[in-house]
Amino acid sequence: MCGITGFLNPQQLTPPDTMEAVVRRMARCLAHRGPDDEGVWVDAQAGVALGHRRLSIVDLSPEGHQPMVSASGRYVIVFNGEIYNFQELRNELDSKPRSTPLTFRGHSDTEVMLAAFEWWGVEGALERFNGMFAFALWDRHERRLYLGRDRFGEKPLYYGWAGRVFLFGSELKSLRAHPDFHNPINRDALALFFHYGYIGAPYSIYEGIHKIPPACLLAISTEHNNTPAPAEYWSFRGVAEAAKSEPLSSGTGEAVEQIERVLREAVKLRMVADVPLGALLSGGIDSSTVVALMQAQSSRPVRTFTIGFHEGGYNEAVHAAAVAKHLGTDHTELYVTPGQAMEVVPRLPALYDEPFADSSQIPTFVVCGLARQHVTVGLSGDGGDEVFGGYNRYFWGPRIWKMMRWIPKALRKKAAAAVSLLSPEAWETAFLKAGPWLPRIVRQRNPGEKVHKLAEIVGVETPEAMYGRLVSYWKGSSSLVLHSTEPPTPFTDRSQWAEVPDFTERMMFLDTITYLPDDILAKVDRASMGVSLETRIPYLDPRVVECAWKIPLSLKIRNGQGKWILRQILYKYVPQELVERPKAGFAIPLANWLRGPLRGWSESLLNERRLAEGGFFDPLLIRSIWSQHLAGKGKWALLLWCVLMFQAWLEVN
After folding, report:
1. How far is residue 309's CA from residue 325's CA, in Å, rounded to a whole number?
2. Are 271 and 534 in contact (CB under 8 A)?
3. How many domains does the chain have?
4. Which candidate among 160, 333, 405, 499 keeps its CA 20 to 30 Å from the CA of 275?
């Protein structure tokens, strides 16, 4: 795991030492992503400079140093990530007939990548890689720069023009370190941020700067000034549509065995490392299954890590500890006080590098920091919800739509207004008092927020519109961000939707191409890289995803419960009673913290004068929302967190 950066400036001849100094400064902005080594490579005549920071995971020797030049001298690469099947590819390349024997200097996956590019070409090699990666590859023969990103977007990669210079990097801070970077804030992208809580690819917070979308390759030639659009080298949409047209025909037992087999192999591949390795364990279905399969393939206790909160409704540590004890892992837990968690808040703007408002970023960073004290690599259970149908909206959404579509819209709106008269906190209290008499299926964490979310969606016209509301922080954010217009996204562009017949599977598809890469994976990448921890995600192995999409939806969602097939696998290793409980997520008591310990920090950032000087919002509107929140009226915590995260980011950038 590493940080990469660089630039291309073919129009202006710059002295090599000047180019080297600039790209070294850009790379040093990414030192947290790679504390073990630093390297730069410059071709002044071509105007190209590559920078790298290394976190040594596989092949700790100097033979893994980057930038790395291919055996023939044609390609130079800087690479962030892991190619899990590199040994298999190396064996295949070794077996190829050739006039000159293939020799490898070391045993890094980077060297195998270069050999693969030499033998199969860039696109041909990408089709064979099973891994998480972002890379920049300079072709010295064709004077062409390639930028590529893995299939699901586990590793980030930004690019764009700053004046006449083409820049790229793992994080925006490395682009900002170039002396020609003066790009203004993109107000349209800011509107997207307030709509969803993150800025989705291909957009970024800066005008002229973009994200490489997942599974895409961009080629820039020094012979042309234009920048072509990134091209797909693999299509998740194609995988989903093919799976629905040719579903798995085996029985339930065989389907369970097949999923377990491919998932077990995915876990095994991600346990290869030359440094200490462990896992992040929440005690939920996803992470518990990963840890169970790790422990089943390990000769020693697996290191596992979890954090807990003293607020009962937000504490998962007790469940994780029970799973760890049963599996026999070497378990470490840390109970975090609100004060300790809130010490992270001032670090968030620099850590996430552009506005990002998923508040679970705080516990994610804390648990990564805990793990990094003991290991350098940690497996996680992210991706399980999207692949195996775990989010509540996947089973509640269709059920709610089926119930309410027959009710006149006017009546639905009246019911929603009545429900909204009570604040989320008042509903929380009511559910708490009624808890012992409520059916198990309606015992949910944060019931007040869920009741208010239900009130928001009862007036919609279509199930797709209902889904749109469920994934939104603020509907109509263009009216919130002055002088902005929301750009198109996969949510609004139906031409990007997979042709799958079931509404639930359409939600799963859209989550996989939007929320997963731009929220979940971005959150995990920045939090883990902020403490120099590499995270690996078995559920996003392409073979696991392809196999999961071939099985019927009824094997994922059954009896109002998601991830049914994963549960059957987990029950082989862990007693059912240890993991069966309502889905929790990784949350903090945000609304209460904003009124309490974070109130002073929030008041400073929401100062009317400061809001007016920024010129991005109507200060009176924001102050009104803040006042309502302090009075316990309405459901404003998520929107306020968006404003606070942007204001805090603006202050340091």
Report:
1. 20
2. no
3. 2
4. 333
